[in-house]
Design goal:
- The chain is α/β, with parallel strands linked by helices.
- It folds into two domains: 149 residues, 3-Layer(aba) Sandwich (Rossmann fold); 81 residues, Putative phosphatase, domain 2 (DNA polymerase, domain 1, Orthogonal Bundle), CATH 1.10.150.
- 49% of the residues lie in helices and 12% in strands.
- It contains nine helices and six strands.
- Strand 2, helix 6 and strand 3 form a beta-alpha-beta unit.
- The longest helix has 17 residues.
- The chain starts with a strand and ends with a helix.
- The relative contact order is 0.17.
- The structure holds magnesium ion.
Length: 241
């Protein structure tokens, strides 16, 4: 059986990546004043800088902004103006200030799951930004607990489950990221529901998920999550703990 269900937030319960994608497009337009963007140089270089910086800055818009500035200085060979650095900072602020757009059916899906299981929100990114989005979403009251974490890997999920005193076999995670929401949960013995989102950040696109796993279901909308959890709960009964 499944006792606890975790929900991812960004691009699962509300839109997020579209704002980062818009900032990236604007960033490349700024850089286009300094270099030829006909190849994917700016795009690929920013991804590489972000990858290297995640361990220092963590995830989220503030880290992205600093990585954009670093990339701009490097690719423009120091020619980027103060005015354009200011524009890049404003791109980061716009991501931090965007209004939270809750996905259709989010409240109903979390509510239906919460009627039968414990529910916990597990999200990563800038603490301050995530706290504001959780509050603004109006969904916080549906959850028994809210966990804002710096990384979503096996140790993090094990820690959260230990706090609930729950074996992983009785946990299912719902989210859009195969790398952060699905792979580590399946790896520790839990179940998962994947809801793909239209756009995936390049660092989240890397994963080693067994898409044939009996403990994984893929759905196309939040409305299908309660039924998917019920099916995974049935399968979990049939398997030795
Ligand atoms: Mg997500």
């Amino acid at each position: 059986m499944i006792e606890l269900v975790g929900f991812d937030a960004d691009d699962t319960l509300w839109h997020s990546q579209n704002h980062f994608d818009a900032a990236q497009a604007e960033f490349e337009a700024i850089l286009g004043r300094y270099l030829d963007l006909s190849d994917r140089q700016a795009h690929d270089r920013l991804a590489a800088v972000e990858r290297a910086n995640v361990r220092l800055f963590g995830y989220g818009a503030k880290g992205m902004t600093l990585s954009m500035i670093e990339t701009a200085i490097e690719l423009s060979e120091g020619r980027i103006t103060g005015q354009d650095i200011g524009r890049i900072v404003d791109l980061g602020k716009a991501v931090l200030e965007h209004k939270v757009e809750v996905m259709p059916g989010a409240r109903e899906a979390v509510g239906a799951v919460a009627a039968r299981h414990g529910v916990v929100l597990i999200t990563k990114g800038d603490l301050f930004h995530q706290e504001r989005k959780v509050a603004e979403s109006g969904l916080a009251g549906l959850f028994h607990r809210i966990e804002i974490v710096s990384e979503k890997d096996m140790p993090t999920y094990r820690r959260v489950l230990a706090e609930f005193n729950l074996p992983p076999e009785r946990f299912a995670m719902v989210g859009n990221s195969l790398r952060s929401d699905i792979e580590p949960v399946l790896a520790i013995g839990g179940s998962a529901v994947h809801i793909p989102y239209a756009s995936t950040w390049v660092l989240e696109a890397e994963h080693k998920v067994d898409l044939e796993s009996k403990r994984l279901l893929t759905v196309d909308a939040l409305a299908a999550v309660p039924e998917a959890i019920a099916l995974l709960a049935e399968r979990a009964i049939g398997e030795p703990a």
